[in-house]
Amino acid sequence: MTEPVKKLFREPAKTESVKCLACGGPISLRTFGAPQRVVCPHCGSTLAPADSGALALLEAAARQHQTSQLPLHARGTLDGIEWEIIGICWRRCVVDGIAYPWQEFLLFNPYRGFRWLIYSLTDSHWSLGQDLGGAPQILPKGHHSVLYDRTKYRHFQGATAVVTYVEGEFTWEVHVGDKADINDFIAPPRGLSIEQSSGPDGVELNFTADRWLPAKDVWSAFKQPGKPPRPRGVAATQPNPWWAMQRSLWLSCAVFMAAWWFVSGEVEQSRPGTLAFEQHDLGFDEPFSKEIELGTEGTLTAIDVTFSAGPLENSWAYAEIMLINLATEEATGIGAEVEWYSGYDGGESWSEGSKTTTITVGGISGGKYLLQIHPQRDTTNLPTPSDGLGLSLPTYSLAGIARSPTFYSVQIHEDVYLTRYSVLAVSLILFFPLLSLILGRAFEKRRWRNSDYS
Amino acid sequence: MFRATYWISAGLALVLLLLDGASGAVLTTTPDRGKVERDKNGTVRGGGGVFVWLGGGYQGGK
Q1: Which domain holds residue A96?
Q2: Angle at A116 between CA A113 and CA A122, to 5 degrees
């Protein structure tokens, strides 16, 4: 059998309706334990309970009513508990000549006590605060930090807050113009505020624990029409969504890496890259043709076709290599080109191109093939027979030595291991966790941009 | 969403490595493939006939 929730007040739960002594406007009182201050929502006059129990006028005012983000006496359900807004207090601080205003909504539940709903007008973020129930320990070393309930809170910002507008009931003596020194400490998603104010009785310290609330949750809780103002930037205690998933991402990464290690090892072992065909010193005068065998019948394989030509100086060579499956007479055509250019420019030598090229072709069915090569070459600098001694002398030009190729070579390796599959897999496996790390850091940078340490 | 995308893409990459890493059909050069016919007038030393592409396309050279 569950125990009934303990009532916080001796008096029976009932609301009271009185008239403002200054303007006569109706004032609804919600706090049954008698409020310390009541500020008329209509004219702003301050009233307080007298010894007789009735409200006495402390200070008459004639200020205009200001519209807050949530209306006074609005009710909403947060964390499964229904709250009513019984007081609204506007405050602001000025830093480097810039004003940062916010609105505090005093929430009340007769069984749960009080909470503060805070709305920042600067960035439209919401947070929910409540009495800390203790005092934090100031840590002597490092970044100004405090320790509470085994959690270290780092100092985020400090400023002097001034009350600029008040309406409703309050459990403390609040006035427009009241000042307090506030220091905010954060350990996202939690925050801790230390508020210091001076009064006739001395210095008063208040400790508040707060946490960030999504704007849409506040809006739907208080059944407000439309959409809430869109929050901008990162709030001080806003949870970092990238940090929240770090553990699961890196755990997944470890599992994927283990799987990758095993699979890529197995695949590499099964791909020896055997030499299936090799021919050197082939001439360019006529095509070449030969029957060869590639792979294993009934399976697919990947092959490396290497083509080179020489001598190659400021010249090029090309080969159209065809592999014709003797069973199906389907051909696979590969174009291989090599070129080499070099010279001197301003006293420095340069070169570009390659005398060897390797082309990787996948999805080759195992079986017998006819290899057919149709070579082509640059013929502008072929050796001439006019040198008398039968020497193959190069041609000299402004670009340097030039020699057209006179022979070419072709090699075909079968069952080659393709590192690109392993590289793709490991890149994807590592990319996402690293990206979340980078985005998480960027998130924190944006958070601390609003602090005293930016 | 981010996590789901990660698990799916990393998983697919591992499956690709396992199933296609040996044959290399997906991530390699796509050469010309097609039918050929024997060139009756062609002769090539070293055996085999001369085949001619039935399709068009770049035939190399400058």
Answers
A1: 16-239
A2: 175
For residues A31 and A162, state if they share a domain. Answer: yes
CA gap A108, A315 in Å, rounded: 89
Residue A247 shares a structural domain with residue A192 = no
Which of B11, B48, B51 minimises the CB distance to A331?
B51
Element (H, E) at B6: helix B2-20
Q: Rounded mean pLDDT of chain A?
A: 87
Question: For A312-334, how does the pLDDT look when each residue is reduced to its tens digit (9 = 90+)?
Answer: 889 999 999 999 988 888 888 89
**A residues 358-377 lying closer than 8 A (beta carbon) to B:** 359-364, 370, 372, 374, 376
Q: Nearest-CA neighbor of A159 among A102, A239, A113?
A: A102
> Are A356 and A307 spatial neighbours (Cβ–Cβ below 8 Å)?
yes
| Residue A7: inside a domain | no
In a domain, A190, yes or no: yes
pLDDT per position as a tens digit, A77-123: 999 999 999 999 999 999 888 899 999 999 999 999 999 999 999 99
**Cα distance between residue A215 and residue A194, in whole Å:** 24
CB nearest to B33's CB, from A267, A332, A428: A332
B27 touches A: beta carbon within 8 Å: yes
**Residue A10 included in any domain:** no
Q: What tokens were used for A188?
A: 């996202």
Report yes or no for ipTM above 0.90.
no
Same domain flag for A348 and A398: yes
A331: contact with B, CB 8 A cutoff: yes
Q: With an 8 Å Cβ cutoff, is B52 touching chain A?
A: no
Q: What is the pLDDT of residues A385-423, one digit of tens each?
A: 655 555 555 556 555 678 888 999 999 999 998 899 999
Cross-chain Cβ contact B24/A331 below 8 Å: no
Spatial CA neighbour of A36 closest among A109, A86, A110, A93 = A86
Q: Taking CB atoms and an 8 Å cutoff, what residues of chain B touch A263?
A: 14, 17-18, 21
Q: Does A437 touch chain B (CB under 8 A)?
A: no
Q: Do A235 and A369 sit in the same domain of this protein?
A: no
pLDDT digits (tens, 9 = 90+) for A240-253: 999 989 999 999 99
Same domain, A408 and A425: no
Question: Are the CB atoms for A323 and A312 separated by under 8 Å?
Answer: no
Give the span between the Cα atoms of A445 and A97, in whole angstroms. 23
Number of domains present in the structure of chain A:
3
Instruction: Look at B21 and A320 and tell me if their CB atoms are within 8 Å.
Output: no
- Name the nearest CA neighbour of A39 among A66, A15, A70: A66
Cross-chain CB nearest to B24 (options A333, A363, A372): A363
> Based on the domain organization, do A215 and A94 belong to the same domain?
yes
